[in-house]
Fold Ogr/Delta-like zinc finger protein.
Amino acid sequence: MSAHGTHCPHCSRPAMARTSRQITPTLRETTWVCRNEFCGHVFVTMTEAVRTLSPAAIPNPEVSLPFTPRRAPAPGGQLDLLDDPPSETSQTVYRRTADGGWKTSPA
Ligand SMILES: [Zn+2]
């Protein structure tokens, strides 16, 4: 599902995403299961899109996020992409609709 996971808050071992659902266009709830067989903790996280670094080319009118541009690109044009890892909600899938428009489709 996601390239990056999370860790159990109790034993700090990696956890596995069990279910995930979109609450709002900017908020996603994920249920995790600790992979440590001696722990077994099941817990829920919320992943929220909180600000925009680079505006969307096909913005959703329901989404309003504060715009905080990245630092100026380094000489040579390289962007510093390490500041903010992508969030779950950045992975919204855009699909073509029958009338030629765009529809967002949370996984
Ligand atoms: Zn654990």
Remarks:
- Residues 23 and 29 are 7 Å apart (CA to CA).
- Residues 8, 10-11, 13, 34, 36, 39, 41 surround zinc ion (CB under 6 Å).
